[in-house]
């Protein structure tokens, strides 16, 4: 007798500026059953961001307590800020049969691969490096030095694409989101006693 495969964690990663947030926004409209893990960060909140929706904003001391307590599935430091994924909430959703999506960087994706080898790693790629550069400069949220560092980091991330299970090209937002929804699947409605 065949049993449905257990719900698995899907990690979405890709270079800064590739459009991860925009794709996720469409995914959430297309597939409201998918649970998006909200990362913890010490980064300063941008004007449009809402605490506990875009990120859980924390002080460095609070973040370090989460690390010390083993409460993060993964964590990384980028551009002087810490980012991490709360472990308990992810594991609880997976146990309930709910598809879980994480949006994290390459370093975090590698940590998840170590911690949960069954996780599906999806690389969101730009149509081209030139388009990625245009998007980074065009969004106007960072200074020139930060953009330069992000572009250098993006080159490293683009080179790591082969480490991922699947690549989705963000050439057209709706199409990329639909492809990701197809990879995430539906909730497993199994009763567990």
UniProtKB/TrEMBL annotation:
A Pfam family this chain is assigned to: Guanylate_kin
Name of the featured protein: Guanylate kinase
Catalytic activity line of the entry: GMP + ATP = GDP + ADP
Residue ranges of every copy of the Guanylate kinase-like domain listed in the record: 7-185
CDD domains hit by this protein: GMPK
Transmembrane segments: none
Job of this protein: Essential for recycling GMP and indirectly, cGMP.
Organism: Rhizocola hellebori
Family, similarity comment: Belongs to the guanylate kinase family.
HAMAP family recorded: Guanylate_kinase
Compartments, as annotated in UniProt: Cytoplasm
Keyword field: ATP-binding, Cytoplasm, Kinase, Nucleotide-binding, Transferase
